[in-house]
Structures are given as structure tokens and as C-alpha cells.
Amino acid sequence: MKTATHVTRTVRRGIRLGFVPLTDCAPLVMARELGLFVKYGVQVELSRELGWATIRDKIVHRELDAAHALAAMPIAATLGLGSVACDCLTALVLNLNGNAITLSNELRKRGVKDGKTLREEIVRSRREKTYTFGVVFPFSSHRHLLRQWFSAHGIDSERDVHIVVVPPPQMAANLKAGHLDGFCAGEPWNSVAVAARAGWIAATSAEMDAQHPEKVLMVRTDFAANRSAEHVALVAALLEACEFCDRPENHDRVISVLARPEYVGVAESTLRHGITGRVDFGHGLERSLRDFCIFNRDNANEPTGDKAAWALELVRASGLCPNQSAINFPLGRNIFRADIFQQAASLRDSNLQLKNHESELEPATH
Length: 366
Hints:
Blueprint: E1 15-19, H1 26-33, H2 36-39, E2 44-48, H3 52-60, E3 66-70, H4 73-79, E4 88-97, E5 99-104, H5 105-109, H6 115-124, E6 131-135, H7 141-152, E7 161-165, H8 171-177, E8 182-186, H9 189-195, E9 199-204, H10 205-208, E10 213-220, H11 221-226, H12 228-246, H13 251-258, H14 268-276, E11 278-282, E12 285-288, E13 293-294, H15 305-317, H16 329-335, H17 338-361
Parallel strand pairs: 1-2, 1-3, 6-7, 6-8
Antiparallel strand pairs: 3-10, 4-10, 4-13, 5-8, 5-9, 11-12
Helix pairs in contact: 1-12, 8-9, 12-17, 13-14, 15-16
């Protein structure tokens, strides 16, 4: 009698890729919709998350393999700032710029029209109330930029105002309800507040700190080491998606896809501002900002030493890192991995060359 032979196979699961519903999650969404993950041979499951603390915790505890993340998050996680320490890295910057500071219409009624008049209102109301402003995460460009904007107008972030953390999708609702007097967040939540007539845009990050790194692809260092080929293929797919999202002729398609409820889930007319750069500041002011959000041009995607230095300075300036000596260039170089990016870019170029070669071999049709 023959005995049954059982063969045990190790089945590798796909990559669980998290994102927060923002305009700049577009490369992740479009990589899926355009079939780019399949093209590069990776199985990816997208997971919509509420906010950045959830993204961080799920990366740390291995509930996500990779994620759309704030530029300084891999540094903060590696240093154990706000969470248990977990070595993380990024091999891809997903976009530059893309944020804005939005103030309430109630402040507008009180005569606030810019940073100078905001300071005047804060001084005038000091005995009555302390104004509250939202940011999306302690180690974020949003907190960094808001504090810089306050400082430029003589407002002390520690004494004159309260700064609280609020998930991006909850910003506009909290502004409308009066729980916030203003916030700094990514699109489309500034435009949502303007459309709801709850607020108006006072400044954009493209104007405050041009070409700052905004979102990155964050993974644990052990994921990048143990699943190297998949990681490089994931970066290559997202790099191609970044190129797609940056082209004006593709904007309508990107907007219509992001509007779906499983992705960002807001009106196309509201999403359009952050994608095209035609920004409605509120109260009848519209302006075109070509660089409002950059997905690919100007070498946006490479995690260069300059981008690492910017993220390191953000963490240093936050005042939230007790060990300042830990924030150094070797740390940034180990986390912002241009070498892995170059591998992915080579893979992307190889695929493009193969596609062009196959097109040349196709017989002409008449």
C-alpha cells in the first residue's frame, strides 16, 4: 500500500500597504488601478487608515508591511519617539509640498486676514480664550510649518496657542464645529473646509517651504532586507505611478478615482484643487500654484541626503526628542535609502525599455 506524501509549501502573503485618505495617496491608488503592482510582479492589498498614529502602530506591530507616511515618520519610529523603537526606512519620496494652513471663518469675522492680524486677535483675546489649532502628527511637516508660520508673525507656539493632534479627515468637521480655530493639513481637507464655508486658506506649504519632502513609502528595515526583491518591485511600481500622477493629461482620471469612497471619498470638484494647483483660498480668492503638489518632477522621488537633512531638522526642531545627539546625518543616510531607490529606478527603466522594444516588434496594422 502506498502512503500519501504530503508536500509542505511556504506561501508568501502579499504586501499589506496602508494609506491615509489624502490627495497625496494618489500614487498608491493609481498603482493599483493601473495594474502596476501586477506589472512588477507584486501582490498588494491596500488598507485605508484613519490617521498617522494608526499607520505608525501598524507598521511597528507588523499589521502593515509598507505605508504612505509622513517624511519624518521613519526617523521618529527608528528613534522610538512616541512609540516603541522600530528600525524603519524609506526608498521613495511620494511627493513634495501639498499642505496648507486653514483658519476659521469665525476668525475672519473677528478681522483676521493674515498672520499679522491673527497675532493681534490673539493678543486682544488673551484673557477670554486661547485659540486651538490642529496638526496631523507630532513629527509632521504640518506641525513644523505651522510653528514656523506662527513664529514669523510673532506668535509663540508654546504660550499663545494650543496645538493639538487631529487625524486629517476630521480637520474640516472639527473646524466647522468650532473645536478648532485653524489647522495645517494636506489636501483635500483644506478645500473641504473652504467648500463647507467653515474656513479659508491663509498659506500653502509650497509658498512657506518650497519643495519640502512630504510623504514617503515607509517600511521596516527587516522587511526591506528579508523581502528585498518585492520591496524594490513595490518602489518601482509606485515610482511609475508618481510619474503618471504628475502629468496634467492624467489629472482628470486621478481625480475621478480618488473621489471613490474606498479611497478619499470627497467630491471631484474639491479634489481638483490639490491635484491641479488651482487653489480656492476662500472669500473669492483663487490662484494657480504650479508646484502646490509635486509627484515626480524636479527629482521629487529620490530620497536624497538633502531630503533626509530636512526631515532630521524637523525632528530636531520639534522639541520632542530628548536625545538631540541621536539626530545626525548617518542616521538620515541609513533611513533615506537612495541606493534602494536606484535599484527600483533601474527596474522601472528596464520595464520601459522592454515595453518600447515590444512595441517596435509589433507588426503594423493597415
